[in-house]
## 1
Amino acid sequence: MSTTTTFLIESMAILGGLGLAVGLMLIFASKKFKVETNPLVEEIISVLPGVNCGACGYAGCSDFAERVVNENAPITGCPVGGFDVAKEIGGIMGQEVAEGEKQYPFIKCHGGLNCVDRFEYVGFEDCKAVMMLSDGEKGCSYGCMGRGTCVRACPFDALYIGDDRLPQVNKYLCTSCGLCITSCPNDVLAFAKESEKIHVRCVSHDKGKAVKEVCTVGCIGCKICEKNCPEQAITVTDFLAVIDQDKCTACGICVEKCPQNTIEAR
C-alpha cells in the first residue's frame, strides 16, 4: 500500500472519528439542555391563526401562547382570532370568556379633499416621509396625510385610500388587529365600537380662524355642540370637541347644529 493511500485512509478515519465525537456531543447537549415545553403552549399554538403579526403585543403566536400559559397574558389577546379563538384558548386554560362588542378602526379626520395642500409633494408614498417635510403637505398638520402608511401596515388588505384621499375600512376583511392604528404617525386612527354612532371627524387643536383657513370641515371650537347636547356628552377642550361615548345617546342634535359639519352620524 502506497504512502499516499495510507495517508488518505488515516485522514478519513480521523475525520470520521471527529464527526462521530461531535455528533455524540450534540446529542448529549440536546438532552442535557433540553427545555421542556408545556403541552398547553402547544395546544394554544394549534388554535391560533398563525399570522405572527404581533398585534397581540408579543413577538408572534408562539410567544403569545407561552405568555398566556406562563405569565397570565390575557386569553383574549389575539385580535385576529377574535372571540372564537379566545373561547378555544379559554377551554384549554379552563377559563370563561365573554364575547365583547365588535370594534373597528375609525378615521378621526375628514380633511382629505376638504383640506388644502400647502405644496405638491413628489416622493415616496408614505405618511411619515411626507411629514418630514415641514409637518406634511396638508394645510392641517394634525390630520391625515392620505399616503397609505396604514394601508400597507394591514396584513389583511382591509384598508384602502378612497377618492377623498382618506383611508376606508372594509369591515368584512378587518380583524381589528390594530396595526393600522399604531402605524399612523398622526394618531388619526382609533378603535370605535359598533354602537358608537356619533363622531367628531377632526383632530386639530388650532383656533377656529386658523382651521377655517385650511379646512372646510374642521372643528373651530365654537362650543355650539357642547351647549346643545341634552346629555352633556360633549366638551370642547383646547379648541376641539370631544364626545363621551358613555353618555351619548346618538340623538343627532350635535350633528344638526355643527356649523362645520365636523360631527357625523354613521
## 2
Amino acid sequence: MSDSHIQVTASLDPCGLDEHPDCGIRDVLTRVGDKWSVLVIVELASGIRRFRELQRGIDGISQRMLTLTVRRLERDGLVTRTVYPTVPAQVTYELTALGSSLTHLVKQLADWSLDHRETIGRSRAHYDAQHPDNEIR
C-alpha cells in the first residue's frame, strides 16, 4: 500500500474481539446506521416537521416504525419532540445540535450511494448470474 493511500484511509480497530470488547461504536452505529433513522435524519435536515409530514416524506415507513424511530432518536439526543398544548395536540420534531452534526456525514453517504449505485447494481447482477441458486438479495 502506498503512503498516500494510508493517509486517506482511516485506520479502524475491530470491535467484538475478546481482547477488544465492544468499544461502544456498535451501539451507536446500530441506531444511526438503521435505514429508518437515516431517512428521518435526512428529512429533518430540512427543518422542523410534524409527524404526518415526516411520514409522507419517508416512503414505505409505517406509523408504528416512525413512532419507534423518532422515540429512539429522541432518547439518543438526536431529535427533539415538542408538544404544543392544542386540541388535538400538535407535535413537531427537529434535529438537536447533535443530530444536526450527523447531517454532513449522512449527505456524504447519500452522495457516495448515488455515485456508485450503478456500479453496485452491475456487481449484484454479475454475482447473481454467477450464483443463481444463492438466496442473498
## 3
Amino acid sequence: MKLLSRFSTIFVGDVQADRVVPPTGFTANLTIFSAAAMGFLAVFALALSLAAGRLADRWSNELARSSTLRISAPADQIDTQIAAALRVLETTPGVATARALSDDEQRALLEPFFGPDLPLETLPIPQLIEINETAQGYDPTGLRLRLAAEVPGAVLDDHTRWRKPLVRAASRLRLLGWTAFLLIGGAMAAMITLAAQSALAANTQVISVLRLVGAQDSYIAGAFVRRFTLRGFTGAAIGMVAGVIAVSLLPAAQDEGGFLTGLGFHGAHWLWPLLIPMIGGIVAFAATRAAARRKLKELP
C-alpha cells in the first residue's frame, strides 16, 4: 500500500523537479519503446492465459459428466444388446439419461477422419450409447461389472483417460502464459533500469550542482522516478491499445478451428488489459527508484 501511495503521487509531481531530467533523448525513446513493446506482448500473454483457462474449464465440464458405452456384436444381436444395455443404464444410480446415437450422429463423428461419404452400413462400426450423469455421478466399477454380466459386448468409456491429459495440458499452457507475463515484466524492469542508469550517468554534473545548492538525494531521485514512471506508463498504455486492437482482429472461436480460433478476450476479460499500463507504471517506478538510489550512493 505504501508503494501504491507513493506511485499515485507521481501523477501530481513537481514541475521544478521535472527540469532535472531531460524530457527527450535516447533514454526517453528507449523507455517508451521498450514499455510499449512489453505492453503489446503482455496483452497476448494475458490472452493466452485466459484462453487456456477457458479451455481447461470447458474440457473439464464437458467431459466430466458424460460417458460413452460402445457395443460390438453381430448384426443379428446388436439390437438385443442395445436394449439390454439401455435397461441396465436406466436402473443405474447416478445415470441421468442414456440414448443410442443414430447412424447420422455416428457418421458426423467419423466424418472428420474418414470423409463425408463413409458407408456406415457396410462397416463393422460399434454402436455408441451416450450417457449423461447426475451431479453425484455413478460407480463405474459397479456398472462395468453389471455390463459384463448382462451385455458382454459392451465397453464403458468414462472419458477419464482423455479428460485428465487434456485438462493438464490446458492448465500448463495457462501457467506458461502467466510465466511469460512475469518474464515480460522482468524484461521491462531491466530495460528501464538501464535507461535510468544511463540518464543518471549523463546528468552527473547537474546532480552535483543540485547537491551544492542544497537539494536532497530524495528530491533528485524523485525527479527521475517521476519522469521514467510516466514514460513507462505511457509506453505500456500505447502497447496495450495496439495489442487489444490486434487481439480483436483474431478469428472468433469456432468448433472447426478449435483452440487456435479462441485466443481473444471474452466478456469481462476485456477489462484485464486495462491493468497493463498501471503494472507498467509500477514496474517503472520500482526499477527507477532502485536505480536512482544505487547511483546516487555511488556519486561523491
## 4
Amino acid sequence: MSSLILDLLLVIALLWSALRSLMTRDLFRAVVLFIVFGLLMALVWARLHAPDIALAEAAIGAGLTGALLLDTVGYLRKKQQESFP
C-alpha cells in the first residue's frame, strides 16, 4: 500500500514539474524545474528496477544537461544586460 502511495506521489510530482517547466516564462525557473524533472525521472527508473537507466538519467538528463542550460541562461542574461546599458 505504501509503495502505491509513493508511486502516485512520484507521478503527480512528475506531471507538476513537467507542466510548470513548460508554462513558466522565466528561463531560470524553467531550467531548475527541468532539473527537478530529470531527478524525479531517475527516481521513477529506480522504482522500475532499472538502476543503469536511473544513473544515466541523473548524470546526463539532470546533471550535464541542466548545467549546460544554466550556463546558457547566464550567458543570455549577460548578453541582454550588455545590449541595454
